[in-house]
């Protein structure tokens, strides 16, 4: 089919952790993503003091941007190293809190209070744990999810969205027979059927 051999590819959590350990993180953008600047108005839609979710957040600098604008940021990431690097690289003091609902998980929260990063798998989250969001910045998230888990991922994301929330999604377009991914190629038709 259109996505060819990527359909069955699986990247394990251990492989992601190893990428962080090896510094094999070519996906990280130190300067932040120009598309967030370009479409910021679409995300915010004139609203202030929003709750913004960063699925599979890594150490995305856009979390700092939005927090500095007065929004509350929540992220989730399996690599604790990534989260610690985020706070360290922005010189943000933080504290570690347990997450009683999720065994083995913890929450790293900026002392100022408006950035909360969950260290666990996104599939461990639910709206009863993290609440619902007014906006989502999905860059390097849907395209990093294993193709077999896309429906599960999107169904979960939908449960985490408030009624009037906006969802910015960045994908990459290329010939999936030429690279194994991630980032995986997600055809437009699939995005439409996933999100409805
Ligand atoms: N969104 C970030 C990172 C993209 S790379 C950015 O724009 O820079 C994808 C990230 O997802 C990696 O940091 C990886 O460790 C993390 N990840 C992979 N599977 C995950 C899962 N099931 N739950 C939470 N994080 C996950």
UniProtKB/TrEMBL annotation:
It is found in: Cytoplasm. GO terms for molecular function: thiopurine S-methyltransferase activity. It is an enzyme of class 2 (transferase). This is thiopurine S-methyltransferase. The gene is Tpmt. PANTHER family: THIOPURINE S-METHYLTRANSFERASE. It comes from Himantopus himantopus. GO terms for cellular component: cytoplasm. Its EC number is 2.1.1.67. The keyword DNA repair does not apply. Its main location: cytoplasm. S-adenosyl-L-methionine binds at residues 16-27, 56, 77, 121-122, 139. GO terms for biological process: methylation. The keyword Cytoplasm applies. InterPro entries: SAM-dependent_MTases_sf, Thiopurine_S-MeTrfase, TPMT. Keywords: Cytoplasm, Methyltransferase, S-adenosyl-L-methionine, Transferase. It catalyses: S-adenosyl-L-methionine + a thiopurine = S-adenosyl-L-homocysteine + a thiopurine S-methylether. Belongs to the class I-like SAM-binding methyltransferase superfamily. TPMT family.
């Amino acid at each position: 089919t259109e996505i060819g051999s990527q359909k069955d590819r699986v990247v394990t959590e251990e492989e992601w952790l190893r990428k962080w350990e090896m510094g094999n993180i070519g996906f990280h953008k130190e300067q932040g993503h120009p598309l967030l600047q370009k479409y910021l108005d679409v995300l915010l839609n004139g609203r202030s003091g929003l709750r913004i979710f960063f699925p599979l957040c890594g150490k995305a600098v856009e979390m700092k941007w939005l927090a500095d604008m007065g929004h509350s940021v929540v992220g989730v990431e399996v690599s604790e190293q990534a989260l610690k690097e985020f706070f360290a690289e922005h010189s943000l003091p933080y504290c570690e809190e347990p997450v009683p609902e999720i065994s083995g998980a913890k929450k790293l929260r900026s002392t100022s209070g408006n950035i909360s990063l969950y260290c666990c798998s996104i599939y461990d989250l639910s709206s009863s744990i993290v609440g619902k969001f007014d906006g989502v910045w999905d860059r390097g998230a849907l395209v990093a999810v294993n193709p077999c888990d896309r429906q599960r991922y999107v169904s979960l994301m939908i449960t985490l969205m408030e009624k009037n929330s906006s969802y910015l999604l960045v994908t990459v377009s290329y010939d999936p027979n030429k690279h194994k991914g991630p980032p995986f190629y997600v055809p437009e038709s699939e995005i439409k059927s996933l999100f409805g």
